[in-house]
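re: ur question from yesterday

yeah so i grabbed the chain u mentioned. its 724 aa long if i counted rite. heres the sequnce exactly as i have it in my notes:
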Amino acid sequence: METGEEFGPWLSRQLKLAGKTQAELAEELGLTRAAVSAWITGRSTPRPTVMTDIARALGTDVGTVHTRTTDTQAGLPLFWHHRRGYPDGGRDLGNAAAFAFDADVQVLARETCQNSLDERRDNGRPVRVRYTLHELTGTALEDFRKAILWEEELLPHYSAVSETAGNQKVGRVVDAGVRDMYERDRLVLLRVDDYNASGLTGDDYEDGKFAAVVRRQLESLKSGHSAGGSYGLGKATLWATSALGLVLINSTLSEPHEGRKERRLIGRLELPWREVRGQAFAGPAWFGRPDPDSPGAEVARSWWADEETVARLHLTRENDDPGTSFLIVGAHDVASLDEKASDTDDEFVDSEEEGDEDTRDIRRMHRRLVKALGRDFWAAMTGGGGRSPRLEIYVCAKRNGDEVVVPEVQVDPSVEQPSRTRALRAYYDGATVDRLTEAGQVAAQSVPLKLPLPGGARGTLGTHEAVLLVTEALTDADQKKDGPRNRVHSLRGNRMTVKRAGVPNLPLGTNPFQAVLLVGEAVGESAPFAQDAEEFLRAAEPPEHDRWGQTEELTLRWSPSAYRRINTLTFEVNKAVRDLVARQPKRGGGREGGEALRKALTVKKRPKAKVPTGPVVPELSDLQATIGDDGEWRIDAEVSIPRGGDEVVPMVPVAEVDVRSGGRPRLKWAELVAIEGCEVDGEVLRFTPGARRAKFRGATDVTTHPVRTMFTRLVVELRAGKGE
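ran it thru and got these structure tokens back, copy pasting raw so excuse formatting
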């Protein structure tokens, strides 16, 4: 029989939930208060016959009292606690942390899988992560809405947000999510489960992983120094991916809390400021049991749910392995609309809906998840040489519980990244070579990373030897799966790809290759200065964890010039790659043979280069930008026009806001003026025949700016044709 927490703490909480005192329970049982106090403090336990009377007093069955694996259903019910508006009248029109990421399932996959890797238990087993896309319609949708108290507690708040949706971005997203649910009678749930992880341990309010995820912003409590995250922003992708701003959580703990481990549930809602029935609400809300220790029992805390409740909330976990299940309610994938046409696979599109403009197409979301997970976590899923993979990933899509839309697949690194997976396995197996002489080989070379002294002191702490692996892409199929050719994937201890970069100035005729750079504990936990390299590079990563370079953290902990050590590492890596992929001269090609061949040849003078006759494409060569008095971007731009050609292609200047991920918001021009060598036709630049350069000036339309100009960066491009 499954048993839960100790009787005393369990009984104490049940009395609070039921609103009873120890004296009142003693009176109902016909016992002394001292007897009940002894149970609470653990000095004694009640006799089996008294257990029946306790169950009756608490309004539950005797089995619940014996096992204590859940709270009683008597007393305070589940509810939504909405945070009251600020007394000073301040308003939060959305969670600022969520604006660091787009509504993109590929970004979600990167952040959530990284978090699972960081929380992997150190027992030699991989952490298993499953992504389940679940579309609810009809009766299944209605049952779920009842389980989350939609009509009675949530709908008034969503209606209030919709009424003011035209005034701010988060409100428009939420309003669109609610309308889609009602108009199409569907709701997409995206569940992220991990197993063999730590789970959300700790108190509801005190320092711990539970409070860091559920209660706080910008707090990161990671289990090790090689962890990928450090900003506490990654969890915001969960709410950013929900068009309704709603996430439900079920955690199985690796360490007991209140004597329990299984089915710890809580929900969190992120909405903008709103006014409901004359009462102002600040933004977030929590779904749980009223905390009897809070004033008026108005605060919602986590609760230990029964299996039936967990099933109704679609949060049932497959086993008792510790870890956490996050259920994103109303998942959407706006970034999927930016996919290139060449990336679209017709077999994943419902013919009757075409799927082209549907941000909630679970087939497309499934495909994009598999692609992103294979691209970013192939190394963590790769084993060899006695090393087990650190990670296993599964993705599936279904409808209304039983209907399989896309069968579950296990993401296979050898399929998603064949060349790099082969390279890493060769390193694990000790099967690398010094130079590439045959197809299928993997060359390895050490590359130095000179670590600076912390605190801005001059000098070098030590030299960490990173490992560069290079292998040829063997087949066209491999090259297609590997992605762009001739690139280096860089990773450190958690085995997530951090940086992807091409190699410049490659020798002519270089065969297509792929390369991997292992740094820090990815080389080996016992490698010299591995831990120091982990800390240094972790501080050099931005919130997206997609590159190494200058960051505020790097400046504060080391020095403003510390990033140059990374630039030197990149230079050494590129140099080593060019050396490894350079074709070696064939034997017998000595000086005498070369001299004889040179005498036997007649070398003709090189003819003069022909003047090109095709269309000439101008290029943006210089750009100066300032912020105007009204908050607009004002630019002065210079365009260079190459020599020759029958005609100069008209170009369209395009202004966009630089963002960390996803598509760039485009800005309209309020003013576009020709200065020299061109004329403006609408938004098209037409260039004067024979001109070698042109200048123009422009100002953006402030009404098309998504946020205040001072918080943005501007990107200006010249595009041919209509600028599409």
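noticed a couple things. The chain is about 30% helix and 25% strand. also The radius of gyration is 31 Å.
anyway ttyl
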